[in-house]
Specification:
The protein has 3 domains: 183 residues, Growth Hormone, Chain: A, CATH 1.20.1250; 54 residues; 194 residues, MFS general substrate transporter like domains (Growth Hormone, Chain: A, Up-down Bundle). It has 16 helices and no strands.
Amino acid sequence: MAAPTTALPGSAVSARPRAVLVVLSTAVFMVSLDLFIVNVALHAMGRDLHSSSLADLSWVLNAYAIVYAALLVPAGRLADRFGRKHGFLLGLATFVIASLGCALSGTLWTLVAFRGLQAAGAALLTPASLGLLLQVTPPANRASAVRVWAASGSLAAALGPVVGGLLVEASWRWIFLINLPVGLAAMLAAVILVPDTGHERRAPLPDLLGGAVLIISIGSLSTGLVKAPDWGWASGRTIGILVFSAAALGLFLRRSRRHPAPVIDLPLLRHRTFAWSNATALLFSAAFAAILLSVVLWLEQIWGWSALKTGLAVAPGPLMVPMFAVVGHRLTRRYPAGVVTAAGALLQGVGTVMILSAVGTHPSYASDLLPGWLVGGVGVGLTLPTIMSSATSVLAAHQAATGSAIVSMARQVGAVLGISVLVAVLAAGDGPSAFQHAWWVIAGISLAATAAALRTSPTPSDS
Protein backbone atom coordinates (compact mmCIF):
# COMPACT_ATOMS: atom_id res chain seq x y z
CA MET A 1 0.00 0.00 0.00
CA ALA A 2 1.33 3.46 -0.87
CA ALA A 3 2.48 5.73 1.88
CA PRO A 4 0.01 8.47 2.82
CA THR A 5 0.64 11.89 1.33
CA THR A 6 0.19 15.34 2.70
CA ALA A 7 -1.63 17.47 0.17
CA LEU A 8 -1.42 21.16 -0.32
CA PRO A 9 -4.24 23.23 1.17
CA GLY A 10 -7.34 22.82 -0.94
CA SER A 11 -5.71 20.12 -3.06
CA ALA A 12 -7.40 17.15 -4.70
CA VAL A 13 -4.76 14.55 -5.49
CA SER A 14 -5.84 12.73 -8.65
CA ALA A 15 -6.14 8.97 -8.97
CA ARG A 16 -4.76 9.41 -12.52
CA PRO A 17 -1.98 12.01 -12.16
CA ARG A 18 -0.20 10.92 -15.35
CA ALA A 19 -3.31 11.44 -17.44
CA VAL A 20 -3.81 14.87 -15.86
CA LEU A 21 -0.17 15.72 -16.59
CA VAL A 22 -0.67 14.84 -20.26
CA VAL A 23 -3.77 17.05 -20.51
CA LEU A 24 -2.16 20.06 -18.82
CA SER A 25 1.11 19.70 -20.73
CA THR A 26 -0.74 19.42 -24.04
CA ALA A 27 -2.43 22.77 -23.46
CA VAL A 28 0.87 24.43 -22.53
CA PHE A 29 2.54 22.85 -25.58
CA MET A 30 -0.15 24.31 -27.83
CA VAL A 31 0.36 27.80 -26.39
CA SER A 32 4.16 27.57 -26.51
CA LEU A 33 4.10 26.38 -30.12
CA ASP A 34 2.57 29.70 -31.08
CA LEU A 35 5.76 31.80 -30.89
CA PHE A 36 7.83 29.86 -33.42
CA ILE A 37 4.97 29.12 -35.78
CA VAL A 38 3.95 32.77 -36.08
CA ASN A 39 7.51 33.94 -36.75
CA VAL A 40 7.78 31.60 -39.74
CA ALA A 41 4.31 32.59 -41.01
CA LEU A 42 4.71 36.37 -40.73
CA HIS A 43 5.80 36.91 -44.34
CA ALA A 44 2.89 34.85 -45.68
CA MET A 45 0.44 36.75 -43.49
CA GLY A 46 1.65 40.08 -44.83
CA ARG A 47 1.37 38.92 -48.43
CA ASP A 48 -2.16 37.56 -47.98
CA LEU A 49 -3.45 40.49 -45.92
CA HIS A 50 -1.86 43.08 -48.23
CA SER A 51 0.42 44.51 -45.56
CA SER A 52 4.11 44.73 -46.45
CA SER A 53 5.03 47.01 -43.54
CA LEU A 54 7.18 45.16 -41.00
CA ALA A 55 6.23 47.80 -38.43
CA ASP A 56 2.58 46.80 -38.81
CA LEU A 57 3.24 43.06 -39.06
CA SER A 58 5.31 43.15 -35.87
CA TRP A 59 2.08 43.74 -33.96
CA VAL A 60 1.03 40.16 -34.72
CA LEU A 61 3.88 39.19 -32.37
CA ASN A 62 3.88 42.16 -30.03
CA ALA A 63 0.14 42.28 -29.30
CA TYR A 64 0.35 38.73 -28.00
CA ALA A 65 3.45 39.36 -25.89
CA ILE A 66 2.16 42.62 -24.39
CA VAL A 67 -1.23 41.25 -23.32
CA TYR A 68 0.30 38.03 -22.02
CA ALA A 69 2.89 39.93 -19.98
CA ALA A 70 0.37 42.31 -18.42
CA LEU A 71 -2.31 39.73 -17.60
CA LEU A 72 -0.20 36.76 -16.48
CA VAL A 73 -0.11 37.66 -12.77
CA PRO A 74 -3.71 39.01 -12.50
CA ALA A 75 -5.09 36.00 -14.42
CA GLY A 76 -3.22 33.62 -12.15
CA ARG A 77 -4.69 35.32 -9.09
CA LEU A 78 -8.19 35.18 -10.58
CA ALA A 79 -7.76 31.44 -11.11
CA ASP A 80 -6.62 31.03 -7.50
CA ARG A 81 -9.65 32.97 -6.26
CA PHE A 82 -12.39 31.42 -8.38
CA GLY A 83 -10.97 27.95 -9.05
CA ARG A 84 -8.01 26.73 -11.06
CA LYS A 85 -9.98 24.20 -13.09
CA HIS A 86 -12.51 26.85 -14.07
CA GLY A 87 -9.64 29.20 -14.92
CA PHE A 88 -7.90 26.57 -17.00
CA LEU A 89 -11.04 25.71 -18.96
CA LEU A 90 -11.95 29.36 -19.51
CA GLY A 91 -8.41 30.19 -20.63
CA LEU A 92 -8.33 27.22 -22.99
CA ALA A 93 -11.75 28.06 -24.42
CA THR A 94 -10.69 31.69 -24.94
CA PHE A 95 -7.50 30.59 -26.69
CA VAL A 96 -9.40 28.23 -29.00
CA ILE A 97 -12.08 30.81 -29.89
CA ALA A 98 -9.42 33.46 -30.51
CA SER A 99 -7.48 31.01 -32.70
CA LEU A 100 -10.57 30.59 -34.87
CA GLY A 101 -10.88 34.38 -35.04
CA CYS A 102 -7.24 34.65 -36.12
CA ALA A 103 -7.75 32.06 -38.86
CA LEU A 104 -10.82 33.86 -40.21
CA SER A 105 -9.32 37.38 -40.05
CA GLY A 106 -9.61 39.36 -43.26
CA THR A 107 -7.45 42.30 -42.21
CA LEU A 108 -4.20 42.65 -40.33
CA TRP A 109 -5.70 44.61 -37.44
CA THR A 110 -8.50 42.08 -36.97
CA LEU A 111 -5.78 39.45 -36.70
CA VAL A 112 -3.89 41.60 -34.18
CA ALA A 113 -7.04 41.99 -32.06
CA PHE A 114 -7.63 38.23 -31.95
CA ARG A 115 -3.96 37.69 -31.13
CA GLY A 116 -4.50 39.85 -28.06
CA LEU A 117 -7.48 37.70 -27.11
CA GLN A 118 -5.36 34.59 -27.63
CA ALA A 119 -2.82 36.01 -25.20
CA ALA A 120 -5.51 36.65 -22.59
CA GLY A 121 -6.49 32.99 -22.78
CA ALA A 122 -2.87 31.87 -22.54
CA ALA A 123 -2.28 34.14 -19.56
CA LEU A 124 -5.17 32.47 -17.74
CA LEU A 125 -4.52 28.82 -18.62
CA THR A 126 -0.75 28.80 -18.02
CA PRO A 127 -0.64 29.59 -14.27
CA ALA A 128 -3.90 27.70 -13.71
CA SER A 129 -2.41 24.59 -15.30
CA LEU A 130 0.69 24.74 -13.10
CA GLY A 131 -1.44 25.29 -10.00
CA LEU A 132 -3.62 22.32 -10.91
CA LEU A 133 -0.57 20.16 -11.57
CA LEU A 134 0.89 20.89 -8.15
CA GLN A 135 -2.40 20.17 -6.42
CA VAL A 136 -3.38 16.94 -8.16
CA THR A 137 0.08 15.31 -8.16
CA PRO A 138 1.31 13.40 -5.10
CA PRO A 139 4.12 15.31 -3.32
CA ALA A 140 6.78 12.72 -4.15
CA ASN A 141 6.13 13.14 -7.87
CA ARG A 142 5.67 16.92 -8.08
CA ALA A 143 9.23 17.83 -9.06
CA SER A 144 9.32 15.38 -11.99
CA ALA A 145 5.81 16.42 -13.08
CA VAL A 146 6.81 20.09 -13.18
CA ARG A 147 9.89 19.20 -15.25
CA VAL A 148 7.69 17.39 -17.78
CA TRP A 149 5.24 20.32 -17.81
CA ALA A 150 8.09 22.78 -18.44
CA ALA A 151 9.70 20.50 -21.04
CA SER A 152 6.54 20.69 -23.13
CA GLY A 153 7.46 24.30 -23.86
CA SER A 154 10.96 23.29 -24.97
CA LEU A 155 9.51 20.59 -27.19
CA ALA A 156 7.20 23.16 -28.77
CA ALA A 157 10.21 25.39 -29.44
CA ALA A 158 11.99 22.53 -31.17
CA LEU A 159 9.02 21.47 -33.31
CA GLY A 160 7.50 24.91 -33.90
CA PRO A 161 9.54 26.04 -36.93
CA VAL A 162 9.02 22.78 -38.83
CA VAL A 163 5.33 22.50 -37.93
CA GLY A 164 4.84 26.13 -38.88
CA GLY A 165 6.61 25.68 -42.19
CA LEU A 166 4.50 22.64 -43.05
CA LEU A 167 1.23 24.37 -42.18
CA VAL A 168 2.10 27.59 -44.02
CA GLU A 169 2.69 25.54 -47.18
CA ALA A 170 -1.09 25.02 -47.17
CA SER A 171 -2.05 28.40 -45.69
CA TRP A 172 -0.90 30.55 -42.77
CA ARG A 173 -4.46 30.23 -41.44
CA TRP A 174 -3.75 26.60 -40.58
CA ILE A 175 -1.28 27.64 -37.87
CA PHE A 176 -4.33 28.83 -35.94
CA LEU A 177 -6.87 26.25 -37.15
CA ILE A 178 -4.67 23.44 -35.81
CA ASN A 179 -5.39 24.74 -32.31
CA LEU A 180 -9.09 23.90 -32.62
CA PRO A 181 -8.98 20.07 -32.52
CA VAL A 182 -6.08 20.06 -30.05
CA GLY A 183 -7.72 22.60 -27.76
CA LEU A 184 -11.17 21.01 -27.88
CA ALA A 185 -9.69 17.58 -27.11
CA ALA A 186 -7.76 19.05 -24.18
CA MET A 187 -10.92 20.74 -22.87
CA LEU A 188 -12.94 17.52 -23.02
CA ALA A 189 -10.16 15.56 -21.34
CA ALA A 190 -9.82 18.22 -18.64
CA VAL A 191 -13.54 18.13 -17.86
CA ILE A 192 -13.35 14.35 -17.39
CA LEU A 193 -9.91 13.82 -15.86
CA VAL A 194 -8.86 16.96 -13.97
CA PRO A 195 -10.41 17.20 -10.49
CA ASP A 196 -11.61 20.50 -9.14
CA THR A 197 -9.51 22.11 -6.42
CA GLY A 198 -10.10 24.48 -3.56
CA HIS A 199 -10.65 28.19 -4.04
CA GLU A 200 -9.11 31.12 -2.19
CA ARG A 201 -12.25 33.23 -2.13
CA ARG A 202 -10.94 35.57 0.54
CA ALA A 203 -8.01 36.62 -1.64
CA PRO A 204 -8.31 40.22 -2.93
CA LEU A 205 -9.25 40.79 -6.54
CA PRO A 206 -6.17 41.41 -8.72
CA ASP A 207 -5.36 44.81 -10.18
CA LEU A 208 -6.87 44.39 -13.64
CA LEU A 209 -6.84 48.16 -14.19
CA GLY A 210 -3.13 48.15 -13.44
CA GLY A 211 -2.72 45.42 -16.06
CA ALA A 212 -4.56 47.59 -18.59
CA VAL A 213 -2.31 50.55 -17.77
CA LEU A 214 0.76 48.34 -18.28
CA ILE A 215 -0.58 47.23 -21.68
CA ILE A 216 -0.98 50.89 -22.65
CA SER A 217 2.53 51.74 -21.45
CA ILE A 218 4.32 48.89 -23.25
CA GLY A 219 2.14 49.29 -26.34
CA SER A 220 2.91 53.00 -26.54
CA LEU A 221 6.64 52.35 -26.17
CA SER A 222 6.54 49.72 -28.90
CA THR A 223 4.60 52.04 -31.20
CA GLY A 224 7.11 54.83 -30.63
CA LEU A 225 10.05 52.57 -31.44
CA VAL A 226 8.64 50.99 -34.61
CA LYS A 227 7.23 54.26 -35.97
CA ALA A 228 10.18 56.50 -35.10
CA PRO A 229 12.03 55.84 -38.40
CA ASP A 230 8.97 57.08 -40.31
CA TRP A 231 7.97 59.87 -37.93
CA GLY A 232 11.52 61.00 -37.10
CA TRP A 233 13.21 60.34 -33.77
CA ALA A 234 12.98 64.02 -32.80
CA SER A 235 9.44 64.55 -34.08
CA GLY A 236 6.64 65.67 -31.80
CA ARG A 237 4.71 62.43 -32.32
CA THR A 238 7.66 60.22 -31.36
CA ILE A 239 8.59 62.26 -28.30
CA GLY A 240 4.95 62.59 -27.29
CA ILE A 241 4.17 58.88 -27.40
CA LEU A 242 7.38 58.00 -25.53
CA VAL A 243 6.56 60.54 -22.82
CA PHE A 244 3.03 59.13 -22.64
CA SER A 245 4.48 55.64 -22.24
CA ALA A 246 6.70 56.82 -19.38
CA ALA A 247 3.75 58.54 -17.68
CA ALA A 248 1.63 55.40 -17.97
CA LEU A 249 4.49 53.37 -16.50
CA GLY A 250 4.69 55.81 -13.57
CA LEU A 251 0.96 55.41 -12.96
CA PHE A 252 1.33 51.63 -13.11
CA LEU A 253 4.13 51.65 -10.52
CA ARG A 254 2.08 53.92 -8.28
CA ARG A 255 -0.87 51.50 -8.42
CA SER A 256 1.46 48.57 -7.78
CA ARG A 257 2.71 50.22 -4.57
CA ARG A 258 -0.83 50.77 -3.26
CA HIS A 259 -2.94 47.86 -4.53
CA PRO A 260 -3.35 44.81 -2.23
CA ALA A 261 -2.90 42.42 -5.20
CA PRO A 262 -0.72 44.26 -7.73
CA VAL A 263 0.53 43.05 -11.09
CA ILE A 264 4.08 43.38 -9.78
CA ASP A 265 4.77 42.92 -6.08
CA LEU A 266 7.39 45.69 -5.89
CA PRO A 267 8.91 44.61 -2.53
CA LEU A 268 10.14 41.45 -4.29
CA LEU A 269 12.46 43.63 -6.37
CA ARG A 270 14.30 44.64 -3.21
CA HIS A 271 16.03 41.27 -3.43
CA ARG A 272 19.18 42.02 -5.40
CA THR A 273 19.32 38.57 -7.02
CA PHE A 274 15.66 38.65 -8.02
CA ALA A 275 15.88 42.19 -9.43
CA TRP A 276 18.96 41.42 -11.53
CA SER A 277 17.42 38.13 -12.67
CA ASN A 278 14.48 40.05 -14.08
CA ALA A 279 16.82 42.50 -15.79
CA THR A 280 18.72 39.57 -17.29
CA ALA A 281 15.51 37.88 -18.42
CA LEU A 282 14.33 41.10 -20.10
CA LEU A 283 17.61 41.77 -21.91
CA PHE A 284 18.24 38.18 -22.94
CA SER A 285 14.67 37.74 -24.22
CA ALA A 286 14.96 40.97 -26.21
CA ALA A 287 18.05 39.62 -27.96
CA PHE A 288 16.52 36.16 -28.43
CA ALA A 289 13.25 37.42 -29.94
CA ALA A 290 15.13 39.78 -32.25
CA ILE A 291 17.64 37.22 -33.53
CA LEU A 292 14.89 34.66 -34.12
CA LEU A 293 12.75 37.03 -36.17
CA SER A 294 15.73 38.51 -38.01
CA VAL A 295 17.00 35.10 -39.13
CA VAL A 296 13.52 34.10 -40.31
CA LEU A 297 13.21 37.38 -42.25
CA TRP A 298 16.70 36.94 -43.74
CA LEU A 299 15.94 33.43 -44.97
CA GLU A 300 12.56 34.36 -46.46
CA GLN A 301 13.29 37.86 -47.78
CA ILE A 302 17.01 37.91 -48.64
CA TRP A 303 17.57 34.27 -49.57
CA GLY A 304 14.00 33.85 -50.87
CA TRP A 305 13.36 30.57 -49.08
CA SER A 306 9.89 29.12 -48.54
CA ALA A 307 8.28 28.95 -45.11
CA LEU A 308 8.91 25.18 -44.97
CA LYS A 309 12.58 25.50 -45.90
CA THR A 310 12.93 28.34 -43.41
CA GLY A 311 11.31 26.28 -40.67
CA LEU A 312 13.69 23.39 -41.31
CA ALA A 313 16.65 25.77 -41.29
CA VAL A 314 15.61 27.42 -38.04
CA ALA A 315 14.82 24.15 -36.21
CA PRO A 316 18.40 23.11 -35.22
CA GLY A 317 18.83 26.15 -32.96
CA PRO A 318 15.76 25.44 -30.79
CA LEU A 319 16.71 21.75 -30.74
CA MET A 320 19.79 22.75 -28.72
CA VAL A 321 17.59 24.22 -25.98
CA PRO A 322 16.26 21.07 -24.24
CA MET A 323 19.63 19.32 -24.51
CA PHE A 324 21.65 22.15 -23.00
CA ALA A 325 18.99 22.91 -20.41
CA VAL A 326 20.04 19.59 -18.89
CA VAL A 327 23.70 20.58 -19.17
CA GLY A 328 22.96 23.92 -17.54
CA HIS A 329 21.18 22.21 -14.64
CA ARG A 330 24.24 20.03 -14.02
CA LEU A 331 26.61 22.99 -14.29
CA THR A 332 24.72 24.87 -11.56
CA ARG A 333 25.75 22.13 -9.14
CA ARG A 334 29.38 23.19 -9.60
CA TYR A 335 29.17 26.87 -10.55
CA PRO A 336 26.96 29.79 -9.47
CA ALA A 337 23.76 30.06 -11.50
CA GLY A 338 24.71 33.61 -12.47
CA VAL A 339 27.90 32.36 -14.12
CA VAL A 340 26.02 29.68 -16.09
CA THR A 341 23.41 32.24 -17.15
CA ALA A 342 26.10 34.72 -18.18
CA ALA A 343 27.89 32.05 -20.21
CA GLY A 344 24.66 31.33 -22.10
CA ALA A 345 23.98 35.01 -22.79
CA LEU A 346 27.55 35.44 -24.01
CA LEU A 347 27.21 32.44 -26.32
CA GLN A 348 24.06 33.94 -27.81
CA GLY A 349 26.04 37.11 -28.53
CA VAL A 350 28.94 35.12 -29.98
CA GLY A 351 26.55 33.17 -32.20
CA THR A 352 25.07 36.42 -33.48
CA VAL A 353 28.52 37.80 -34.31
CA MET A 354 29.38 34.56 -36.10
CA ILE A 355 26.26 34.93 -38.24
CA LEU A 356 26.84 38.56 -39.14
CA SER A 357 30.51 37.87 -39.92
CA ALA A 358 29.83 34.94 -42.24
CA VAL A 359 26.43 35.22 -43.86
CA GLY A 360 26.07 36.72 -47.32
CA THR A 361 23.34 37.29 -49.87
CA HIS A 362 24.24 34.04 -51.64
CA PRO A 363 22.61 31.15 -49.72
CA SER A 364 25.23 29.05 -47.94
CA TYR A 365 23.45 27.65 -44.94
CA ALA A 366 25.76 24.95 -43.59
CA SER A 367 28.92 27.06 -43.59
CA ASP A 368 27.62 30.60 -43.01
CA LEU A 369 24.47 30.48 -40.89
CA LEU A 370 24.26 27.12 -39.13
CA PRO A 371 27.39 27.33 -36.92
CA GLY A 372 26.42 30.62 -35.31
CA TRP A 373 22.79 29.52 -35.04
CA LEU A 374 23.80 26.39 -33.14
CA VAL A 375 26.07 28.35 -30.79
CA GLY A 376 23.19 30.71 -30.07
CA GLY A 377 20.87 27.77 -29.43
CA VAL A 378 23.33 26.40 -26.88
CA GLY A 379 23.28 29.80 -25.18
CA VAL A 380 19.49 29.82 -24.99
CA GLY A 381 19.51 26.33 -23.49
CA LEU A 382 21.96 27.38 -20.78
CA THR A 383 20.31 30.70 -19.95
CA LEU A 384 16.52 30.55 -20.02
CA PRO A 385 15.89 27.50 -17.82
CA THR A 386 18.64 28.59 -15.41
CA ILE A 387 17.32 32.11 -15.00
CA MET A 388 13.78 30.83 -14.47
CA SER A 389 14.83 28.37 -11.78
CA SER A 390 17.38 30.56 -10.00
CA ALA A 391 15.46 33.85 -9.97
CA THR A 392 13.14 32.75 -7.17
CA SER A 393 15.79 30.95 -5.12
CA VAL A 394 16.11 33.90 -2.72
CA LEU A 395 12.35 34.31 -2.23
CA ALA A 396 10.23 32.77 0.49
CA ALA A 397 8.24 29.69 -0.52
CA HIS A 398 4.93 31.58 -0.59
CA GLN A 399 6.46 34.18 -2.97
CA ALA A 400 7.85 31.69 -5.49
CA ALA A 401 4.77 31.44 -7.72
CA THR A 402 4.35 35.21 -8.00
CA GLY A 403 8.09 35.61 -8.47
CA SER A 404 8.26 33.15 -11.36
CA ALA A 405 5.28 34.86 -13.00
CA ILE A 406 7.09 38.21 -12.79
CA VAL A 407 10.15 36.69 -14.47
CA SER A 408 7.90 35.33 -17.23
CA MET A 409 6.42 38.81 -17.59
CA ALA A 410 9.91 40.31 -17.88
CA ARG A 411 10.66 37.82 -20.66
CA GLN A 412 7.58 38.86 -22.62
CA VAL A 413 8.30 42.57 -22.19
CA GLY A 414 11.85 41.88 -23.38
CA ALA A 415 10.49 40.13 -26.47
CA VAL A 416 8.34 43.17 -27.30
CA LEU A 417 11.30 45.52 -26.92
CA GLY A 418 13.61 43.27 -28.94
CA ILE A 419 11.18 42.98 -31.85
CA SER A 420 10.45 46.72 -31.76
CA VAL A 421 14.16 47.62 -31.79
CA LEU A 422 14.74 45.16 -34.66
CA VAL A 423 11.93 46.73 -36.70
CA ALA A 424 13.32 50.23 -36.05
CA VAL A 425 16.86 49.26 -37.09
CA LEU A 426 15.72 47.43 -40.22
CA ALA A 427 13.50 50.39 -41.21
CA ALA A 428 16.43 52.80 -40.82
CA GLY A 429 18.62 50.81 -43.22
CA ASP A 430 18.34 49.12 -46.57
CA GLY A 431 18.56 45.45 -47.49
CA PRO A 432 21.34 43.19 -46.19
CA SER A 433 23.27 46.03 -44.56
CA ALA A 434 20.29 46.77 -42.30
CA PHE A 435 20.40 43.19 -41.03
CA GLN A 436 24.12 43.58 -40.32
CA HIS A 437 23.40 46.66 -38.19
CA ALA A 438 20.55 44.84 -36.42
CA TRP A 439 22.79 41.88 -35.59
CA TRP A 440 25.40 44.17 -34.05
CA VAL A 441 22.67 45.69 -31.88
CA ILE A 442 21.47 42.21 -30.88
CA ALA A 443 25.03 41.20 -29.98
CA GLY A 444 25.29 44.32 -27.82
CA ILE A 445 22.05 43.49 -26.02
CA SER A 446 23.36 39.96 -25.39
CA LEU A 447 26.52 41.43 -23.89
CA ALA A 448 24.39 43.63 -21.62
CA ALA A 449 22.47 40.50 -20.55
CA THR A 450 25.80 38.82 -19.78
CA ALA A 451 26.80 41.69 -17.50
CA ALA A 452 23.40 41.66 -15.76
CA ALA A 453 23.59 37.89 -15.24
CA LEU A 454 26.87 38.21 -13.36
CA ARG A 455 25.04 40.39 -10.82
CA THR A 456 22.49 37.69 -9.99
CA SER A 457 24.67 35.67 -7.62
CA PRO A 458 23.05 35.78 -4.14
CA THR A 459 24.58 37.96 -1.43
CA PRO A 460 24.11 37.73 2.36
CA SER A 461 21.49 40.48 2.17
CA ASP A 462 19.33 38.24 -0.04
CA SER A 463 19.10 35.46 2.47
